[in-house]
Amino acid sequence: MESAAEMSHGKKIGDIVLAVDNISLSFGGVRALSDISFQVREHQVLSIIGPNGAGKSSMLNVINGFYHPQEGLITYRGVTRKQMKPHEAARQGIARTFQNIALFKGMSTLDNIMTGRNTIMKSGLLWQALRIGPALNEELAHRERVEQIIDFLEIEHIRKTPVGKLPYGLQKRVELGRALAAEPSMLLLDEPMAGMNIEEKQDMSRFILDVNNEFGTTIVLIEHDMGVVMDISDHVVVLDYGKKIGDGLPDEVRNNQDVIDAYLGVSHD
Amino acid sequence: MSANSVAATSSPQFDTIPKLLFHHAQARGDRPSIREKDFGIWQSWTWSEVRDEVMSLAGGLAAIGFEPGDKLAIVGDNRPQLYWAMVAAQVAGGVPVPVYQDSVAEEMQYIFDHAGIRFAVVEDQEQVDKLLEVKEGCESLQNIIHEETRGLRDYEQPFLHSLADLQASGRDWNRDHAGELDKRIADAVGGDLAIMLYTSGTTGRPKGVELSHDNLIVTARNAAEFDGLTADEEMVSYLPMAWVGDCIFSLAQAYVCGFCINCPESGDTVMTDMREIGPSYFFAPPAIFENLLTNVSIRIEDASSVKQWLYRHYIDVARRVGVRILEGDSVSGWERFEYFLGSLLVYGPLKNVLGFSKVRVAYTAGEAIGPEIFDFYRGLGMNIKQLYGQTEASVFITMHPDGQVKPDTVGVPAPGVEVKIADNGEVLYRSPGVFVRYHKNDEATAETKTADGWVLTGDAGYFGDDGQLRIIDRAKDVGKLNDGAMFAPKYLENKLKFFPQVKEAVTFGHERDFVAAFINIDLEAVGNWAERQGIAYGGYTDLAGRREVYDQIQECIEKVNVDIAEDPHLSGSQIQRFLILHKELDADDGELTRTRKVRRRIIAERYGDLIEALYDGRDEVHVEAEVTFEDGRKGKIVADLAIRDAKVTPVQSAAA
Q1: Closest-CA residue in chain B for A150?
Q2: SS3 B336
Q3: Does residue A153 sit at the B interface (CB-CB below 8 Å)?
Q4: Domain ranges of chain A
Q5: Which residue, A164, B239, B248, B398, has fewest beta-carbon neighbours within 10 Å?
Q6: Class of residue B630 by CB neighbours under 10 A (exposed 0-12, middle 13-18, buried 19+)
Q7: What secondary structure, in 3-state letters, does B228-275 show?
């Protein structure tokens, strides 16, 4: 399809880490996804775009193992399987954020991000609850990592603030922080910029690029705002009514007639 | 351990900042010199560690061609590495030029061109991007050093260096050129340039104020001895590094006394960080003290009624008793007991929350502070004082001595400073801190500094009988009434604006028979009051025209008159007539500047009729005014405004 070593932002894009082959997903009689295939390469920023109801979130839920497709295969890091459970996905380094923020509202920013470390904590529940011996040392190490994330996302001033009291844009950032806490190799972002103003979108775009750049994290994101998508993506996949209608570099997709039709409507005469 | 450390540094061998650094690295090498909160923890560096950091940085600068006499721009928030860069520039024989990090690229470019800056140390990617823009139009700038590396991985310009890399190469350079930097340090003398600070310049281009090591060190030491500062002070450094105050408090005084400065985690966390550090020496502009008090008041409104009662009762006690205790006046046993209870129940916890528990000396300056606010903090037992200073003076001109603090004065001349008042009322001073000159601007230097070393401040003021200076206004705004009495519009307006009911005031009197005023009421404060009184009103114009509101404002003005009557210099400028304007003065209509300063010329033009009415004896005037709404539409306000006379307080004669 495209050259194996796409270069963008001066960084090296690697081999295919995730391949989605002929995925179809139905809910009863409603066909959410039909016959979708695409590949995600290491260190890539890949965006899935499409009008409302195109099946973008369903696609993410399939990758994440939350939905189980009736047909098709997913190959992640060389292992092909028909379905995966969310916690398995998490263990294998796939973290995600949600379209509707799913944080613990009553807990502080720090504690919320700390929960993201859960999958990598080694000591047992009892030790953790008692907070003694090895559990304490482990917690200190995790806290250090969490502080680096807080510093990275520039949210020091809300470290101890209950998340429920924060404005929307900051909650989104905390959610990104929690996903990063798991030290994922692949990050799934479901509309990270929905409902944000221009400045918040710029900030979030910068954080996404920085994560990609600094940690080399592969990023798959869903977004509505075409401008943002074209600026930050290495590769774009376009869905419409559960079908893939475009797949390529941002510029290729921008000039794809099917995509233009899907977004702007077609005159039938 | 170190009460006499300030005196110890007064020896001539410590006449530059780098020499002081070496002194402290030896005398108290394992004591903290600077801390920064990073990754949620206070990281600290001792004096000997700071010396090593500074030396490797200076070596790194030399390695990329930094020569004696070169200027080093410093752009960023208060960070240890940036403070080290300042001293490193001095060590390498050059001059640091801190620049406000929020200036736009164009302003920065002017400064870079004007100062001929070849090297810059900046904080992060944001500043690097800005300087790359500056560099395109600036021939002198050759090297940019950045502290943070994040986001800069893909920047391949050869003239970009990370600070850590530079320090590494500096260590090599120092090994290969052993003794070179030591020689540069030893060769420097107190008269050499220590720093160049650009004044923000409300009019015209910014001017580069050149200050020598002597300027900084002697002034800093005098002020430190005045307040008995020691090596044990803790200071939170959160004000812009390009501002002379930060240069004196966080650099010169810290290096003279050997105390520790603390850099907050980010601009938004200053208050939390303050609380964790508990500074003993603190500076803030009046606006910060005002905001803190407002926050406290708002949170008390939400507290339970018992807590509210406790707070109100004991804050009353504090205002009545606390201020007198701080001044050393006599206080009865019962009052002392009440104040003690208040300390346990209210003042202690409150100061702890604000981070003021350990404050020994706090200063405010820059603008007039409301007496209510001032007394609030002093009542809590916080020794907050005012000082009057300028970049050109290395800050200190006058300051409050302990025990003689008044909200409406700025104190007595600081040690070593001579102050006199010119015939036109302008304040002049001469001191060891007086700047060397304006960089490449002999004309401005000659205008500001006389041949025998007196500096014109541009501010009008006078000394009271207590020997304390009062600053009343910018000298060019001060006028005279027809009978020759002095008229200081801003002084009167500030006094009026300290009342919560008054939002804005404009006074007239220059070349008139008496002083008259326009008032803008504060819609929120007066509106709240009106609601409680059951007065119905339909918007600003309606409320402003109410008889009851006029009564209130008249009361405020008469209080101001009583106040002024006691002041022999200004008693002639009591406000005799006033009206409440039918609309709020607004920056959108050009009546105020964006920073809410009154534009007298435009107001005089636009409201000429009203001003005439104030002086021709009418008691009502009809106005039609055009206003611009927020969406840009124009509209008209029609109203009949009442004009009232205010009672003038007879002057206690023979006072002056």
Answers
A1: B39
A2: helix
A3: no
A4: 1-93+185-269, 102-183
A5: A164
A6: exposed
A7: CCCCCCEEECCCCCCCHHHHHHHHHHHHHHCCEEEECCCHHHHHHHHH
Across the interface, do B266 and A159 touch by the CB < 8 Å criterion?
no
| CA nearest to A159 within chain B | B40
Q: Do A150 and B38 touch (CB under 8 A)?
A: no
Superfamily per CATH, domain A1-93+185-269: P-loop containing nucleotide triphosphate hydrolases (3.40.50.300)
Nearest to A234 by CA among A247, A243, A215, A224: A247
Q: Give the number of A-B residue pairs with CB atoms closer than 8 Å.
A: 37
CB proximity A213 to B under 8 Å:
yes
**Is some CB atom of chain B closer than 8 A to the CB atom of A214?**
yes
B445 and B503: one domain? no
Which of B425, B456, B472 delimits the end of a domain? B472
For residue range B437-480, list pLDDT tens digits in order. 999 999 999 999 999 999 999 999 999 889 999 998 888 888 88
- Give yes or no: residues B491 and B393 share one domain: no
| H or E element in which residue B305 lies | helix B305-317
In this complex, the residue of B150, B156, B266 whose CB is nearest that of residue A156 is B266
Which of A110, A152, A156 best probes binding to B when mutated, by most B CB atoms within 10 angstroms? A156
Give the whole-angstrom CA distance, residue A149 versus residue B587. Answer: 42
Residue in chain B lying closest to A209 (CA): B151
What residue ranges of chain B have pLDDT lower than 50?
A: 1-3, 654-656
Using alpha carbons, select from A209, A202, A256 the residue that is nearest to residue A225: A202
List the CATH number of the domain containing B398.
2.30.38.10
One domain for residues B426 and B498: no
Indicate the pTM of the whole model.
0.84
Nearest to A210 among B151, B269, B272 (CB): B151
Write out chain A residues lying below 8 Å of B156, CB-based.
Answer: 10
Q: How far is A85 from chain B (nearest CA, A)?
A: 34
How many residues are present in chain B?
A: 656
Within this chain, do residues B28 and B163 fall inside the same structural domain, yes or no?
yes
| A216 touching B (Cβ < 8 Å) | no
- CA-based Rg of chain B, rounded to a whole angstrom? 27
Residue with tokens 């008691």: B619
Q: Report the domain count for chain B.
A: 3
Nearest-CA distance from A210 to chain B in Å? 6
Out of A10, A147, A210, whose CB is closest to B40? A147
Residue B326 within any structural domain of the chain: no
Q: A99 exposed, middle or buried (CB, 10 Å; 0-12, 13-18, 19+)? A: middle
- CATH topology for A102-183 is Rossmann fold (3.40.50)
Bridge partners for A27 per DSSP: A30
How buried is residue B302: exposed, middle or buried, by Cβ count under 10 Å (0-12/13-18/19+)? Answer: exposed
Q: Which of B440, B472, B504 is the last residue of a domain?
A: B472
The per-residue pLDDT for A134 is: 77
